[in-house]
Amino acid sequence: MEGYPQMRVEDFTDGTVGQLIELMHGYHAFVPAQLPPLLVLDWNLVKLLTDAERALSELNGLSYNLPNPHLLIDPFARQEAVLSSRIEGTQTTLTQLYLFEENSLAAASEPQSADAQEVANYVTALEFGMAQIPTRAISLMLLRQMHELLMRGVRGADKSPGQFRTAQNHIGSPRSNLATAAYVPPPALQMRDALLALETYLDQPDHLPTLIRLALVHYQFEAIHPFLDGNGRIGRLLMILMLCRERSMPHPLFYLSGFFERNRSEYYDLLLAVSQRGEWSAWIEFFLHGVVEQSKQAVSRAERLLALQSSYQSMLQTQRAATLSLQLMDALFSSPRISVMRTARQLERTPKAVQQSVERLVEAGILIEATGRERNRVYIAPQIIAIIEN
Q1: CA 207 to CA 333: how far, in whole Å?
Q2: First and final CA of the chain: distance in angstroms?
Q3: 316-334 tens-digit pLDDT
Q4: 198 and 274 both lie in a single domain
């Protein structure tokens, strides 16, 4: 939140949203009121909600008709990890993440490799959370477990991974303190009470539509800010879990990080405006616009990927490519990178056979070699990655 004005008591004018608590030395912290707030949905917001639900439904319909949903699940999750981490200052591309996952760090400088580890941790935390929600409620324990995976071995690993904070934190520029912070979340004692209330709300859905609840919970988690680091990423992961847990989305294909990243200043301004002035409608409207935009983009990317896959199949069949080449090509749409030795082990084929098929895909313009090395090469599918990155 570089460049934000410091938190001022006089800016917090709506006491129904929460209360200010005076800390030592005259500083103040904000404690959000429990959910749900008293909302007034005008016709414009109702129409926007309808548009958002329709856009998400179209994406869901596409996912139901896919013969293999993992065609989109894995690459979309990795692009979400890249964009969500980018909001927090991490600079890694999707290609660098795939190279990192192949243990090919020679293709990236050390800072990029450290960033790639953060993004890879995001994927790990997401996959862990998604594996839990069919049998577990979204609980504080689950969020702590995901946080531990997110922060393992990366920047912030010294800030109590997997544990809620016991000290006061604040939001602002890297050099800010309590006196100059843009926002000061609840003290640890009030934070615990607010978290317990949020957990209850997650476990006991009210009459509000799921997308409205999603907007409320995302604000609430950000306002509570329960970890010393990683709050933004856990807050965005929480949205994905909620959508799938409440059966609004059968597969994790919809993510809002791209929208938040493109509109970062407005995103922060509107969250803060809820705390300061109770401007729920403006925040929810922004959130729903994001749902519409991201759902449509996801459908467009999915359709382009399916069209590209079909064109690759036709080209290889016309060239009478070997069955293995077709098999490797199809696998690229779930994971658009290949290393010969790993693939040979997975498919129980000889490295020579895999290498020949990889070379066939290179000749066809489907793969390129990404490391520049003579040994332990990694090949990526640039056209597939370009569509995912959009």
Answers
A1: 39
A2: 26
A3: 988 887 899 999 999 999 8
A4: yes
Q: Give dist(CA 93, CA 40) in Å, integer.
A: 41
Report the candidate in 309, 292, 289, 290 with the shortest Cα–Cα distance to residue 387: 309
pLDDT at 5 (0 to 100):
65
Asked if the structure places residue 68 within a domain, the reply is: no
> CB burial class (10 A; 0-12, 13-18, 19+) of residue 61?
exposed
d(CA 231, CA 221) in angstroms, rounded, equals 8
Type of residue at 99: L
**219 and 239 in contact (C-beta within 8 Å)?**
no
Q: What is the pLDDT of residues 142-190, one digit of tens each?
A: 999 999 999 998 877 677 899 999 999 999 887 888 888 889 999 999 9
Of residues 94, 90, 96, 99, the one with CA closest to residue 78: 94
In degrees rounded to 5, what are phi and psi of residue 121? Answer: -65, -35
Residues 104 and 164 in one domain: yes
Count of positions (residues) in the chain: 390
66 within some domain: no
Rounded distance, CA 179 to CA 26, Å?
Answer: 9
Q: Which helix (H) or strand (E) holds 18?
A: strand 18-22
Cα 70 from Cα 22, distance rounded (Å): 50
Residue that is last in its domain, among 271, 290, 309: 290
Range of the structural domain that residue 231 is part of: 9-37+90-290
**pTM of this structure:** 0.91
